[in-house]
Amino acid sequence: MPLVVPGINSSMGDKPDWVTKLMGKTIGDNSNETSFAKQDLPQSHRVLKPGDMKTMDHDPNRLNIHVNEEGAVHDVNYG
């Protein structure tokens, strides 16, 4: 089975490439080189920190943003 890396060798359809926009940045109040403004995210999103509880319902339009202990984005997917 081939390795599929979202945003690199797969398509997210007509959805923006959030991987490129968010990877390595923190989510904050303003956008700059190291941060992305929360108000610029899609309405249906959630930011998940290590150990956070989350619902297991699947919403193909919800953007899931996974951050590490320092708050930097390390994974982005829909679901």
What would you say this structure looks like, in words?
With 79 residues, the chain is mostly beta strands. The protein has one domain: Trypsin Inhibitor V, Chain A (2-Layer Sandwich). 6% of the residues lie in helices and 27% in strands. It has one helix and five strands. The strands form two sheets. The chain has a three-stranded mixed sheet with strand order 3-4-5. A two-stranded parallel sheet has the order 1-2. The model is unreliable at 7-11 (pLDDT under 50).
Quick summary:
By secondary structure, the protein is mainly β. 6% of the residues lie in helices and 27% in strands.
Task: Give the arrangement of secondary structure elements.
Layout: H1 18-22, E1 26-28, E2 35-37, E3 45-48, E4 63-67, E5 73-78
